[in-house]
Specification:
By secondary structure, the protein is α+β, with helices and mostly antiparallel strands. It has helices at about 40-55, 65-80, 130-135, 145-150, 185, 190-200, 205-215, and strands at about 1-10, 20-25, 30-35, 95-100, 100-110, 110-115, 120-125, 165-170, 180, 225-230. The protein has a single domain (about 1-230), classed as Phosphatase 2c, domain 1, CATH 3.60.40. It has seven helices and ten strands. The relative contact order is 0.22.
Length: about 230
């Protein structure tokens, strides 16, 4: 099995700069997405430092213990950035990395990993937000003003004062699986059915382009980033 992949990012119409940061390599597979919180200098520095730390640290034999160590290192780095006069320093972190026993998913925040297997598009990660908790427990309607406000209340992220650990999930890919890593600027603007349609019928490079175009057409209210990874036969 080999992985074909592509990545892209768009500023959108709300911000003048892009506070999403991405990294992609296929040999070995490592896809990383970070979404800075807000539009401050601290946001930009947090995203860049987090991605650089994860890319440098997740080399060789990737294990859950190594992932936790690397994320803790990123937490410490971003916490130190936050002590400077740079505004809010924090970001999400979502990563997909190859390992001897399948793929590891790393999750902090509300960027996401989806998997298309056959005709079923599944969300593999959990959003670390009060909106997610509210939707699961029925605190308020999903499309209510309360839910919309709660989307901006992250319970875990890089730079959080308590330096929370990430979710770590192991998945075994099958031939034909397609994975999508994306920031909330894409997930919250592109409808599920449209996302599934694009992933099912497009090669990674074209899928990324069409996903970003769909986010832009939906309003472009946030930076939008997508990484599409397809499991192919060697």
């Amino acid at each position: 099995m080999r992985f074909e992949a592509a990545a892209g990012s768009e500023v959108g119409h709300r911000y003048t700069a892009n506070f999403d940061v991405l990294h992609l390599t296929t040999e070995p597979l490592l896809a990383v997405v970070a979404d800075g919180m807000g539009d401050s200098e601290g946001s930009a520095l947090a995203g860049r430092a987090t991605v650089d730390t994860v890319v440098a640290g997740l080399a060789g034999d990737v294990t859950p213990d190594l992932i936790r160590t690397v994320v803790a290192r990123a937490q410490e780095t971003v916490t130190e950035i936050g002590r400077q006069d740079v505004g809010l320093a924090g970001c999400t972190l979502t990563a997909l990395t190859g390992a001897a026993d399948g793929l590891w998913i790393v999750q902090l925040g509300d960027s996401r990993v989806y998997r298309l297997r056959g005709t079923l598009l599944e969300l593999l990660t959990v959003d670390h937000t009060m909106a997610w908790l509210g939707a699961v427990h029925g605190w308020y309607p999903f499309d209510s003003p309360q839910a919309n406000a709660a989307r901006y209340h992250l319970t875990r992220y890089v730079g959080h004062p308590e330096q929370p650990a990430p979710d770590i999930l192991n998945v075994v890919p099958r031939l034909g699986d397609v994975f999508l890593l994306c920031t909330d600027g894409l997930a919250e603007q592109v409808e599920y059915a449209r996302m599934a349609e694009i992933l099912a019928t497009r090669a990674p490079e074209r899928a990324v382009r069409e996903l970003l175009d769909a986010a832009d057409a939906a309003g472009g209210q946030d930076n939008a980033t997508a990484v599409v990874v397809s499991a192919e036969r060697v």
